[in-house]
Every structure is written in C-alpha cells, then in structure tokens.
Design goal:
Elements lengths: L8 E4 L2 E4 H21 L8 H26 L2 H6 L14 H19 L3 H8 L4 H13 L27 H20 L8 H17 L19 H22 L8 H11 L1
Antiparallel strand pairs: 1-2
Keywords: Cell membrane, Lipoprotein, Membrane, Transferase, Transmembrane, Transmembrane helix
GO molecular function, one term: phosphatidylglycerol-prolipoprotein diacylglyceryl transferase activity
Family: Belongs to the Lgt family.
C-alpha cells in the first residue's frame, strides 16, 4: 500500500496548524469530556469543574515531561551539541515515558492543592488517557514517522521516508492497542468500585505490555539502535518497570484493599439530605 498523501499541516491563510498538535488538543478535549461525564455520577467524589483543572495540570505535565524525557532518553547528545534544540518542539520529539513522569509530578501537585490522595487522582485520570495516546499515534502516522520493519503483509505501507519497501504501520498498531483497546479495558474496569491503585496498576500493565509487543515490529530510534541483546529497544527497557510496578500495584491493591474515602463535601450533602 502507498502512504496516503496527507499534508502534515493545515493551512488557513498565513496560519499553519500541524496535525500532530491538533491530535493533542483532541486528546485533551476527550479526556475533559469523559472526566466530566464520570464526575457527574453519584458518589464519584469529583465535581465537573475540578476536571478542567486536572486536565490543565496534566497537559502541562505531558508537554514538559514528554519533551524533557525525549531529550534525556533519546536525544541527549543532540541537546548537548545544540541546547536550543530542546525548545524546537516544531521539529518533533516527545517521549511517552517522559510525559508519564511529567503527568505524575503534575498529579502530585494537583493532589496537594486539592487535598486528595495521590492514587485517587491517578485512578480517576488513568481511563481518560488512552484515547489521547491513540490520537497522538494517528498524528505520528500523518507525519509518516515511527514506522516499522519491512513486511510482506497486505497492509504494509510504503512510507515516504522509509524507502521503497512496505513496512509495518506500527504507529497504527499502537493507536489501536494503547488507544482503543486499553481505553475499553480501563473504562470498563473503572466503571465499578475498585481498590485504590488498582486502576492505575492496570493502566501501567496494559500500556507496558502493548508497547513492549509493538516494539518488536518497530524500527528503533536511529541514534540509539538496539540497547540490549541485539533486539531490545529503549521503548521496551522503559516499559519493563511499568509492567513490574503495575503488577505490584494490582496485586497489593487487592491484597490490602483500601477505598477512596468520601470527601467533606459529600459527607455534608449526605447529612443535609438525612436532616
């Protein structure tokens, strides 16, 4: 299959908007919509207007953490040679694992500000993340980047920058697995009351396993190549701790189950109704 002729940017007069940025905005908008929808459910412990603040904190964490993570994990030598390159976001270069660390730090700040438990916030936001990841990977596809290894499968695509050979559309695999499938799993799992940290643990396991699997058909970053055993990529190395920590969180959350406590506002509402 030939790569579809998609302009990576939208041109509106003198204004140029890149599809990759649009996909980020779509992801944040969906997270806000889904978060508000869940916050409106009785006993959620959340108010709809709190969701917007949480998404804002998370958005800053994604962008800052994603860029710094890419610099540290994939582009340190380039950053040392040209420090200003760090700020050239228009040239691409975002790391999911760095973005995750950035989001976790942002969540920690949000939890302190709102006097919530850290894990209660991560459990709430975890099901909102996958669709954003999926749209981000679609942005990678439109840009014709992060393609996979050569393949003779009928859905192999000849990417403009990948030579005249069909390749795995690995970014679409990730969009499907890390985006749609992981969203369905987490949305279903979190629709019922679960012990604290269980939803967060399942997110880490799900993403880690899907990312580790897709890396087998994805070309490693040129500047790094394979990191270990002539087959393990940086993405797989960074995903392993996610899987291990996720399994531990899941097991321990059910072994020592604790549930979110009602917030003061909920207790006051209950008392007023009883009165």
């Amino acid at each position: 299959m030939k790569f579809p002729d998609i302009d990576p940017a939208i041109h509106i007069g003198p204004l140029t908007i890149h599809w990759y940025g649009v996909m980020y905005l779509v992801g944040f908008a969906l997270a806000w919509y889904l978060g508000v929808r869940r916050a409106k459910k009785p006993g959620s412990g959340w108010k709809p207007d709190e969701v917007a603040d949480l998404i804002m904190f998370a958005a800053v964490g994604v962008v800052v953490g994603g860029r710094l993570g890419y610099v540290l994990f994939y582009g340190l030598s380039e950053a040392i040679a040209d420090p200003l390159w760090i700020f050239r976001l228009n040239e691409g270069g975002m790391s999911f694992h760095g973005g995750l660390l950035g989001v976790l730090f942002a969540i920690w700040l949000f939890a302190r500000r709102t006097k919530r438990k850290f894990w209660d916030v991560t459990d709430f936001i975890a099901p909102l993340v996958p669709l954003g990841l999926g749209f981000g990977r679609i942005g990678n596809f439109i840009n014709g980047e992060l393609w996979g290894k050569e393949t003779d499968l009928p859905w192999g695509i000849i990417f403009p920058s990948g030579g005249n050979v069909p390749r795995h559309p690995s970014m679409l695999y990730e969009a499907f697995l890390e985006g749609l499938v992981l969203f369905i799993i987490l949305w279903w799992f979190s629709s019922k009351r679960r012990p604290r940290r269980a939803v967060s643990g399942l997110f880490l396991v799900g993403y880690g396993v899907f990312r580790f699997a897709v890396e087998f058909v994805r070309i490693p970053d040129v500047q790094l190549g394979y990191i270990a055993f002539d087959w393990m990529t940086m993405g797989q190395i960074l995903s392993l701790p996610m899987i291990i920590i996720g399994i531990w969180l899941l097991v321990d959350s059910y072994r020592n189950p604790r549930y979110p406590e009602p917030r003061e506002e909920e207790l006051e509402d209950t008392e007023s109704q009883e009165g």
